[in-house]
Amino acid sequence: MTGTWDAWLDTRARVRERRGLTRTAGPAPGAPQPSAAPIDLASNDYLGLARHPRVREAAARAAVDHGVGAGASRVVTGTHPLHVELEREVAALAGASIALVFSSGYTANLGVLGAIGGPRSAVVLDEHAHASLRDGAALSGAEVHEAPHGHLPALGEQLTRLRAADPGRRLAVVVESVYSVLGDAADLRALGDLCAEHDALLVVDEAHSLGTVPEGSCAAAAGLWRAEHPGGGTTAPVILTATLSKALGAQGGVALFGGDPTRAAAWRSHVLNTARAFLFDTALALPTAAAAAEACRLAATGEPAARLTRRRALAEQTLLRRSGLAPHVEIGAGAVHAVRMPSPQAAVAAAAALAEDGVHVACFRPPSVPDGVARLRLSVHADHGEQRLRGALEQIASRAEAAWGAATGPGAC
Ligand code: PMP
Predict the structure, then answer these.
(1) b/e burial code for range 345-355 (CB count within 10 A of at least 16 → b)
(2) How large is the ipTM?
(3) Which of 90, 132, 336 has most ligand 1 atoms within 8 Å of CB, for mutation?
(4) 144, 137 in Cβ contact below 8 A?
(5) Which domain holds residue 385?
(6) I want to staple 342 with a disulfide (CB 3.0 to 4.6 A). Which of 118, 145, 206, 412 is the partner?
(7) Where is this region: Disordered (predicted)?
(8) What is the 104 CA–ligand 1 centroid distance (Å)?
(9) Residues 190 and 309 occupy one common structural domain
(10) Which segments of 116-222 does DSSP mark as H helices, in order?
């Protein structure tokens, strides 16, 4: 007789399988053909820094000189000069004044959201906010609300209602600068104004933008920390979070604080002293901290971001030129473009077939995206060779066109 847990496990696996939602965590599938060098359009190594010689060397040197593990939490004995150096470099890259490094982007979001939660806090999340922001909000003890994706008038109404219901409560708005799957960008300047108007804190997750824009971060590009607010009024407090594992090619996470130095220092101290995901987590491994700091220095030159911009334009032109595919192409504001697929199963099959040709793309299905959504996600990297990139995009376009050609009926999502 099977027990209740076995029966439950079996049912869950069969439901996942039927919906095309089963995942594995093995190495990327597919053996590249000898004729085509593999191309990585799946990972988040947007600037091609994960294997950059200077980044590798920095990690290796730190391992030899200092060892690997930090050995303890940052507030016990885990803080090493390499963490301090990384915080200086990442703040400089982002246009922030100070930073607090976490062991991942996920824990940075848990930590920051946890630090602003508690009684009389209300957090309004964009409905497409990343799982780590949602989890952080859920654990924070704040009242949690959701705003329609990117809809500022609806967000404004929500803030007005929340403020009227309790004038003394603390409000926070939580968004991403560039959304991870759909690739669209938030209007940070308008969000900064809205938050200032409603006395709300603005939390921006820059996971997909840190290092990919000439100003280093979208918040800096939008002037969120400028002393003189473009609207002439007060500025909203702003906290950025980001991962060091995407454009910076390493690992780790960060909370960034800017604007008035006293206010920035007060916020950093508050997060350091209250974020459980900071206090009770072992500090970032030392080779990783050294690698991330070196990646920040490379990214801060602006050269990798400029190359990424040129590759993105190439991808955009190549995908949109195919008239059969153009209606299904979503051009992103950052490094990511997406191709809508008729179903999760079609997306999985296309990604597997492309992998066999050496073209690695990401396949997005629920729960990474809302129900009914299936996408091939292409992240263009600064170090992609132009000719190989063009060829790979043509292969993707052909597979996607074939999938749409084979799709029937209104079930296509
Ligand atoms: N926020 C966003 C928007 C992300 O896409 C990710 C990574 N998928 C994270 C946070 C988490 O970052 P990390 O992988 O460093 O934990």
Answers:
(1) bbbbbbbebbb
(2) 0.99
(3) 132
(4) yes
(5) 31-51+302-406
(6) 412
(7) 20-39
(8) 8
(9) no
(10) 131-139, 152-165, 188-197, 218-221
